[in-house]
Design brief:
- This protein is about 25% helix and about 30% strand.
- It is of the alpha/beta class.
- The protein has one domain: archaeoglobus fulgidus dsm 4304 superfamily (archaeoglobus fulgidus dsm 4304 fold), CATH 3.30.2170.10.
- The protein has a 7-stranded mixed beta sheet, with helices on both faces.
- The chain starts with a strand and ends with a helix.
Length: about 170
């Protein structure tokens, strides 16, 4: 999937605010960073298991609204689907953007109420990443994440957006 412009997101929660970040990159032979964005979001919802999107979605949309590039694909640190077809964060993001931009969810930990995902292993890691998707075929999404640069479990662009959110 060369020539794809993707935006990956991460949100880090501080005591009284969240920092929401986005890294936009183009997938060529490797990944070429086009830009990064960050916003401080105040008045963040409390975390409720199974309703993570209520906390995270407003933060992601806040930073997404700053993105100047036309993006083909979004990557979130979450599951797209929960049990019984219930929407996870990724599916809520897809809906919020009028079903126009495919979303890949990449979760680092398993969530017992998630479904319709693929486990992928990267590098020498014995711990999987849990990849789910909407608007793009699951196998294609899993291969895209598996083929991102980085020798370790977490692709380097996802490490970068995580690092930016924590700074």
């Amino acid at each position: 999937m060369k020539g794809i412009t993707a935006a990956c997101f991460d949100v880090y929660y501080h005591e009284d605010y969240a920092k929401s970040c986005c890294v936009v990159f183009k997938k060529e032979e490797g990944e070429v960073i086009l830009s990064d964005y960050s916003v401080i979001v105040r008045g963040v919802e409390e975390y409720i298991p199974g309703q993570f999107y209520k906390r995270e979605l407003p933060c992601i949309l806040n930073v997404f609204n700053k993105v100047k590039e036309d993006v083909d694909l979004l990557i979130t640190d979450s599951f797209v689907w929960l049990n019984s077809g219930k929407k996870g964060l990724g599916a809520h993001l897809y809906k919020a953007l009028s079903y126009k931009i495919p979303v890949i969810g990449v979760a680092k930990t398993h969530f017992k109420d998630a479904e319709n995902y693929e486990e992928i292993y990267r590098g020498e890691s014995h711990s999987p990443l849990y990849v789910s998707s909407v608007g793009i075929e699951l196998g294609t999404a899993a291969e895209f994440i598996k083929n991102l640069d980085g020798d370790n479990r977490i692709p380097w662009v996802l490490k970068l957006v995580d690092k930016l959110s924590r700074e």
